[in-house]
Amino acid sequence: MNPEFKIKRFNELSLQELYKVLQLRSEVFVVEQNCVYQDVDGKDEKALHLLGIYDNEIFGYSRLFAPGYYFDDASIGRVAIAMKFRNRKWGHSLIQAAIQGIYSNFGKVPITISAQLYLKNFYESHGFVQQGEVYPEDGIPHIQMHKTP
Asked: Rounded CA gap, 60 and 86, in Å?
């Protein structure tokens, strides 16, 4: 059985999906990375939500933004894979689905992301290139990366 990916607007998420998404984001970004920050940031209503689903369970997630909302370019954020699924390398499938989601919803536009520094090679393997210097975001080293279609 392969994973499937669904893109939904905020108002299309069921209450259970929203709960599972917030639970996953909290598990990865707050608990696992020991980072106290405001995850519910008021941007979810403007984003498209990419759900990675396997056996009726949300294993992965990311937010997709139209150009001009988060950066001048389209953007992908809050990329997360549940720990118990990481050995399957589905992060690559998730980011590919996110890129395709940007292109199919907003056109073949440039994509800019704020990536955690330790994931630089991962994003480079998907065509992203570092722009600028390392900067702290919520106490974690980040870099801005860009992908041209």
From this structure: 9
Dump pLDDT digits (tens) for 17-45: 999 999 999 999 878 787 777 778 889 99
The token pair that represents 17 in the structure block: 């999906």
* 105 close to 64: Cβ distance less than 8 angstroms: yes
Q: Which of 110, 38, 125, 101 is nearest to 74 (CA)?
A: 110
| Nearest C-alpha neighbor of 83 from the set 101, 59, 63, 62 | 59
Render the burial of 15-24: b for 16+ CB within 10 Å, e for the rest: eebeebbeeb
d(CA 41, CA 105) in angstroms, rounded, equals 23
Burial label for 31, CB within 10 Å (0-12, 13-18, 19+), is exposed
Tell me if residue 132 falls in helix, strand or coil.
strand
